[in-house]
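Give me structure tokens for this 118-residue protein.
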Amino acid sequence: MMSNPGEIADAVEQFKKGALLYQHGQFMDDSKLMIAGIKMCRAAADRVDQGPEGRLALLPLLEHTDEHIQAFAATYLYRVAPEKALVVLEYLDKYRYTSAERVAWDMLRAIKRGDPAP
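Here you go.
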């Protein structure tokens, strides 16, 4: 179990970097960067899962200034805080016209199909 606040903060930072790497990959049309970003987010989510709060340590990212970080955080928080995650995903899907909207759209479609959240 990860209990050191510094380790949890490092994992949250890794998560943010992964979300931004994915976004950069989208912009550059580089699937390798996008996959690397997803892997970074997964690894970071696995690390925060070991902390005392678990994945809820990502909750502050729902209010991050970067919409890509918000979208990824909402995606990874859906399992543990669906009501909060849905608010962000639905907002990004309906009112934003960025690549973050695409992440939100994909996750909302997966939820409707019944696919498990990451």
